[in-house]
Write a structure and sequence with these properties.
369 residues, alpha/beta, Rossmann fold, globular
Length: 369
């Protein structure tokens, strides 16, 4: 039994007093001493919970384990939920771009990470604990509303400018994917990733409103431009009730801010864990927009798990922009050669339009191994 939200805690308080093998995460249990003393606790874990000293001692005496809150961190090593854009942006002052890195929660975590990641053993442990908590929270999030099966990843370059016509194309892709019942996931950063999350956010709005949002963003075309946050905040102020989508960024690339259009953000310290997670969870398929080394790495990560069927499902791989993937970066012909005789050969395609992309995904569901 996993208890990691006030709602689940309330249900437990009014139900079972058997916490045998339960896991409680990031809860304030100080008001619930009586409940703890009445409960069976053998094998129970309490991760980052606030506890009275006598209650913590009681748990340990009765077979439970307590992992305390780690002090002096700008983040929780044990998180019960994914981040939101608002939480990470907390402390930012609109109109002062530099305040993101100097004052926001996201910036503070990045500074702390950079200062300790090569020298601090305890810090490295805290990073691992945090990322494990994100794994758990992400699994819980994707288990809702059958999201895991519907998840389609949009991969592409972080340096894609907002005024690049391809940005509008990928925003339209996210918009149409969400409308057609898919659940959009990206790497959570700027560029093509932001475009995908923006499109999903705007899925309940018209195509004209989507293009207007892209137009609003264009005067600050890169994440290094002073208006990058403020233009995004302007779009969200005009359209505050966006559709849900997921972003999975990393502090390893913390100089690139998380985009503000992913409604849920699974941000990791370890980029290797993050990269593997993005590839692994997109059971509905992956769409590869133009990108450089990072995107091409993701292509072959996905190809490897499809080649060997290592995740239990073989998922479609769609390459958006025929010229880019067959001539400029001729990855697609190589992959077709690699896939000959394998199941994923028929799950590969290269297209030039958003509608072709979605039609292929809809007609080529993942194949169980």
């Amino acid at each position: 039994m996993l208890i990691q939200s006030p709602e689940r805690l309330a249900a437990a308080l009014h139900g079972t007093v058997d916490l045998t093998d339960a896991v409680c995460v990031d809860l304030d249990l100080r008001p619930h001493s009586a409940w703890l003393h009445e409960s069976a606790l053998d094998g129970a874990f309490f991760l980052g919970c606030l506890l009275n000293a006598e209650d913590a001692a009681h748990i340990v005496r009765h077979g439970g384990l307590v992992f305390p809150v780690l002090p002096d961190l700008p983040y929780k090593a044990f998180r019960a939920a994914l981040y939101t854009a608002e939480e990470l942006l907390e402390g930012y002052e609109p109109g002062r771009y530099e305040s993101f890195f100097a004052q926001s929660r996201d910036g503070a975590i990045y500074r702390h990470y950079k200062a300790e990641r090569r020298t601090d053993i305890v810090g490295a442990l805290a990073h691992r604990l945090h990322d494990h908590s994100i794994d758990t929270a992400l699994a819980d999030y994707l288990a809702r509303e059958d999201r895991l099966r519907r998840t389609v990843g949009i991969m592409g370059g972080h340096s894609m400018r907002r005024d690049d016509p391809r940005f509008a194309t990928i925003a339209e892709l996210g918009w149409k994917l969400q409308q057609s019942g898919h659940f959009v996931t990206t790497g959570g950063g700027p560029g093509a990733m932001e475009a995908g999350n923006l499109g999903a956010w705007m899925a309940d709005h018209t195509h004209h409103e989507l293009l207007a949002a892209v137009h609003t963003l264009a005067p600050a075309p890169t994440y290094k431009d002073a208006g990058w946050f403020d233009t995004a905040l302007s779009v969200k102020a005009r359209h505050p009730s966006g559709c849900e989508s997921l972003g999975i960024p990393t502090w390893f690339y913390g100089h690139e801010p998380s985009n503000l259009f992913a409604s849920a953000i699974a941000k990791y310290f370890a980029n290797s864990v993050r990269e593997d997670g993005i590839i692994s969870l997109c059971q509905g398929g992956l769409v590869f927009a133009p990108g450089s080394a990072g995107t091409i790495q993701e292509v072959f990560q996905d190809a490897c798990q499809n080649h060997y069927g290592s995740l239990g499902v073989i998922s479609p791989m769609v390459f958006l922009d025929r010229d880019y993937w067959t001539r400029q970066k001729p990855v697609y012909p190589l992959l077709k050669e690699l896939a000959q005789g394998r199941t994923y050969d028929r799950l590969l395609t290269v297209v030039d339009s958003v509608d072709e992309c979605i039609a292929f995904l809809d007609s080529h569901p993942a194949v169980p191994v």
